UniProtKB/TrEMBL annotation:
InterPro entries: Dps-like (IPR014490), Ferritin-like (IPR012347), Ferritin-like_diiron (IPR009040), Ferritin-like_SF (IPR009078), Ferritin_DPS_dom (IPR008331). It comes from Acetomicrobium thermoterrenum DSM 13490. GO terms for biological process: intracellular iron ion homeostasis. The keyword Iron applies. This is Bacterioferritin. Gene3D superfamilies: 1.20.1260.10. It comes from the Bacteria. Fe cation binds at residues 27, 63, 114, 148, 151.
């Protein structure tokens, strides 16, 4: 653990690690559902939808890695148990429809998940600005939030919104 890094957030380190672990859990859950949906999607437009879901899944995994690195830098440990991940996640389930050719419903489920992620990161940014005052974590979260906003926009484009 980097002592000076943890000292930056002083008494708020444990709460910040908790918030980051919940976001970490969200990213792993999102990766799982998006990757699975990309593999299972069927029908005439499957390639377009699968490619988009695959790209988002890849970025969700990158987000989980960025969050895990920051958790460790702050002296914590990323959650390492799947049951715990699904318990701690803000959004433990993405409702991907059983009909794998229902692109609109698949994309709507992803859209809801991305909007949820944006809300989670907005809350963490608020905590960082008002309480923890950690500029490094702020930068990491702002970067991830920007990508989540881009995902939302990409899905909206596919939905014709």
């Amino acid at each position: 653990m980097a002592q000076k890094t943890r000292k930056l957030v002083e008494e708020h380190a444990d709460k910040l690690i908790e918030l980051l672990n919940k976001a970490y859990a969200d990213e792993l859950v999102a990766y799982f559902y998006y990757k699975t949906a990309a593999l299972l999607v069927k029908g005439i437009h499957a390639k377009t939808v699968a490619d988009q879901l695959e790209e988002i899944a890849k970025e969700e995994m990158e987000h989980s890695e960025e969050l895990a690195e920051r958790i460790i830098q702050l002296g914590g440990e990323p959650i390492d148990d799947w049951d715990e991940i699904t318990k701690k996640a803000n959004y433990p389930k993405v409702d991907i429809p059983k009909d794998r050719s229902d692109y609109e419903s698949i994309l709507k489920a992803v859209h809801v998940a991305e909007q949820g992620a944006i809300g989670v990161y907005a809350d963490i940014i608020n905590f960082l600005q008002k309480t923890a005052k950690d500029p490094v974590t702020f930068h990491v979260i702002r970067h991830i939030m920007g990508e989540e906003m881009h995902h939302e926009e990409e899905v909206e484009t596919l939905l014709g919104l």
